Amino acid sequence: MKKLTLILIACFTGSAYAAQFTDLAVRASGLQGSAVTEIPAASPASAAPVATGDITLTRTVQNTLDSIEAGGARTSDGMTGLFELRRELGRRAGEGAGSAAELREAISRARHIQDDIAVSLMAGGGLNSGEPFKGELSVQKVAGFSFPDSLNTGDIMLSRGTNMMGSLAARMSATPGEFSHLGMVYRDPETRKLFILASDTGVGATVEPIEKFLSGRARLIVMRYKDAAMAEKAAQLMRVRLEKKVPYDYSLNSEDDSALYCTEVAAAAFKMAGQIKVPLQMSSLPGTAHTSMYSDIGIARPQVFLPQDLEVDPRFEVMAEWTDYSRIGELNEIDAVYGKMAQWMEKENYVFSKNILYQGIGGILSTLAKKKIRESLGDFSGSDIRHGLDYGLTLYQFVTLLRDKLDKEVKNKAGYHSLADLNRTLEKIRTEEYRQYKESSLHLDSENTNFVNIHSFFKPKRM
Q: What is the C-alpha separation between 140 and 86, in angstroms, rounded?
């Protein structure tokens, strides 16, 4: 608790002293730790956090974040404090410091507050370079880490783009995260060139130059397994395996690694290296309405390994993180749409309407997609994309419509819009259109035939 207390003080102060506190926290954290053994799984997400004194650790952190949001530590030193706070929360996962869900929520919230501070600081100077691991505000890292020179074989890179599928992947769990893709670092022992072991839809598992993996990313984080030799062995074994074509796992089935989705590359690699379970805890998909949506898409199990799961696996250490703050507004908008969509499913029992036209189009696309994948990868019996393309078309139509409505609501409000601001606006849109839809006998507003109500695509089961 002592290290975390120092970091909390750093967040509160936001002064020159903050850097001293966070530097002390880094030195105390033992980043050069020796090899670790398998540790027990953390408490289940439903478990109550363990009390520290008369207040829980996670509540202490939430109180700190409340204070910062209210106007404290709005400096670059405060950003450094938030970075160290997130790292420390990850270290404490599995120690009974709180449920995995609570820790994920605190980490995500701290990152969004850091985003807001950075955008505010950048407003006058444009300090972010837009290139990975360059720029005054864009990079947070441990002492001595240099990108890409410090990357080791076996390091894990989590990333995030700004497209629709990236947001869906990042926000799909009961506790949303900020990353949508995972790659494993492999440094060629002879040429010293860097490659990323990854798996992508429509392509399958690949060995790609690091430059390709970095292209178009808005967030990037480097994580390192504490047993360096084991991590290197895992990456080497996976590199050999990928000499043969491995299909993409569209069902996200972690129990069968004959096909691999992106995070499954890391899970399968550590399993081959030493029967090591990675991650300690997978993300849970939300309740009934959400589960129905994912089963329609083709996801077969209620738990999925998502990139965010490594942030609460204490065997992995955050080494560095980069954010393109010039794109945070764009990220906030798409994340707000998907986040609210998920919340309405969970709390308001919303479901998507079936569309016969989309079902027909989806069937055609499914046949064409499978043919294309077979041409490039051969047999892909471990993956099935029969489900969900018609569903995906409906989803795309809805998300596009809701984003258009959100844009119209905020276009006259100058400046940066935080995720919290956008969430409030979306709730206002839903409430008003729910009222209009209930009052109308048609799906189109009688006074404006150009107005399409979101409830034409997505509405509560009871309607």
A: 11
Distance CA 1, CA 99 (A): 16
Going by C-alpha positions, the residue among 105, 55, 62, 461 that lies closest to residue 283 is 105
> How many helices and strands, by DSSP H and E, does the chain display?
14, 13
8 A C-beta contact, residue 401 and residue 454: yes
The number of beta carbons lying within 10 Å of the beta carbon of residue 104 is: 28
Query: Can the peptide bond before residue 279 be classed as cis, meaning omega within 30 degrees of 0?
Result: yes
- Check if the beta carbon of residue 260 is closer than 8 Å to that of residue 272: no
pLDDT score of 420 more than 60: yes
- Higher confidence at residue 195 or residue 44? 195
Question: Cβ neighbours of residue 276 under 8 Å, at least 6 residues apart?
Answer: 38, 230, 234, 270
Strands 219-225 and 204-209: unpaired
In sequence order, the 6+-apart residues with CB closer than 8 A to the CB of 306 are 169, 170, 172, 173, 177, 179, 263, 282, 283
Domains assigned to the chain: 2-125 (no CATH), 139-321 (3.90.1720.10), 335-460 (no CATH)
Dist CA 221 CA 356 (whole Å): 42
Residue 459, SS3 per DSSP: strand
| pLDDT one-digit tens code per residue, 98-124 | 677 888 889 999 999 999 999 888 876
Residues 199 and 246: their CA atoms lie apart, in Å, by: 9
